[in-house]
Amino acid sequence: MAKTLDPAVAEVTTGRSGGLLVENVSAGYGRHIVLREVSLTVDGEIVSLLGHNGAGKSTLLRAVSGALKMTGGDVRYRSRSVRDLDTARVAQSGVALVPQGRGVFPTLSIEENLRLGAGVARHTGSERQLVTMDFVLDLFPALAGRLKERAGTLSGGQQQMVAIGTALMTSPTLLLLDEPSTGLAPVLVQTMLDQIRTVHRELGIDVLIVEQNIHEALRVSDRAYVLRLGAIVREGPAATLLDDADIWDLF
């Protein structure tokens, strides 16, 4: 029998309508304001959030995931506010964050990391399509023969695969990715981002991606926003921004 959801979470998980809506969000750390009335949407698509170091990209992902309390504005997911939910309840609502630095449990095996994600999925009710371990291993075949190995012994790229795989095992409807190509060899960056596109196409998972490789991020995205000094300064279709020579002056 499925576990009964917290009423606040149950309300959020009802319906597909609305996607992610970030409305005039301000946030920071103590007296240091990082985000200034930022607004964006993600609905049935892959969206890139671009900007220089310190622009506030990671801060925005933390605010959306419940890891950082905002000082103004609102975050709505599936037409319901998640502003006052903690990280666990935001995760139960269908939002999965892969933080910068990968965030694997290094002393646990690959399989144990993945099953932790599956444990989150078991508490979300029956509405969402469950992501199987077979799907994750097909997506990242380099992990298939190493399930019993500790995650901390893997290369940086393999740890990133485990981190994304664990997030997918929560069966999310929205995936937040913070610099997924950090530490990867250039030859692996395109492959990793192509796999994100596969996840979106085959599972219908929306993606908001913060990425330092601007060209590759725009290549796999439908739309993009440029964040500068805590404010959105440019937005539009990814293909249009990719062809806009002036965009490079923003970084």
Automatic annotation (TrEMBL):
Could you state a single Gene Ontology molecular function term?
ATP binding
Keywords of this protein's UniProt record, alphabetized?
Amino-acid transport, ATP-binding, Nucleotide-binding, Transport
Q: Record's superkingdom?
A: Bacteria
Q: Which residues form the ABC transporter domain?
A: 20-250
Instruction: Please give the PROSITE patterns that the UniProt record associates with this protein.
Output: ABC_TRANSPORTER_1, ABC_TRANSPORTER_2
GO biological process terms, semicolon-separated: L-amino acid transport
Q: Which CDD domains match?
A: ABC_TM1139_LivF_branched (cd03224)
PANTHER family attached here? Answer: HIGH-AFFINITY BRANCHED-CHAIN AMINO ACID TRANSPORT ATP-BINDING PROTEIN LIVF
Q: Which family does it belong to?
A: Belongs to the ABC transporter superfamily.
Record protein name field: Branched-chain amino acid transport system ATP-binding protein
